[in-house]
Amino acid sequence: MAYTKIARELGISEGTVRSRVKRLMESKMLQIVGIADPRYVSLDAPAMIGLVIKPGEIDSVAGEIGKFPEVSYMFMASGSYNLFVAIYCKDKLHLVDFLENKLGKLEHIESSEVFMILKMHKMSYRWGEDLPPSGEPPIDLDWEALEELER
Q1: How many domains does the chain fold into?
Q2: Do 28 and 48 lie in a common domain?
Q3: What CATH number does residue 108 fall under?
Q4: Checking CA distances to 143, which of 26, 77, 90, 115 falls within 20 to 30 Å?
Q5: Residue 142 contacts by C-beta under 8 Å, 6 or more apart in sequence?
């Protein structure tokens, strides 16, 4: 969305919008990125990998996995797997290479299961857009820091 449109909707100047966005980006509270749809850039072997990581080693293993360019996102979870990794590979050979020569070489992975994504039914980066407002702020949001950035 253009800064001019944001300014018009908020009733503030475009310069104020630019300044606030700059401060939010500098504080790491906001990132503005372009995201290519993997289906259109020859990444034909997407997969979700469920991992069981040795207790006490999740952060270190996640740090190593996060260095691989194939990894699009990763999260710790409860349940049968304590770490999930979403990857995009160009083809099945690339996927096999990733599993054997990158993930397979890491220590502290006790077990894994690879889920090939056969068909993507929805891919969206508009988090919470369709959710009704709850009226309560997210617990981890630093409202004082946000208010400071608005000044």
Answers
A1: 2
A2: no
A3: 3.30.70.920
A4: 77
A5: 29
Q: How confident is the model at residue 97 (pLDDT cuts 50, 70, 90)?
A: very high
Measured CA to CA in angstroms, residue 74 lies from 58, 70, 125 at distances of 11, 11, 15
Residues 23, 45 share a domain: no
CA angle 25, 31, 34 (to 5 degrees): 135
Domain limits at 50?
38-116
Q: Return the half-sphere exposure (C-beta side, CA atoms, 13 A cut-off) of residue 78.
A: 0
What pLDDT, on a 0 to 100 scale, did the predictor assign at position 128? 57
Within a domain: residue 125? no
CB neighbours of residue 95 within 10 Å: 21
- Does pLDDT of 45 surpass 60? yes
- Convert the pLDDT of each residue in 128-149 to its tens digit: 555 555 555 444 445 565 555 5
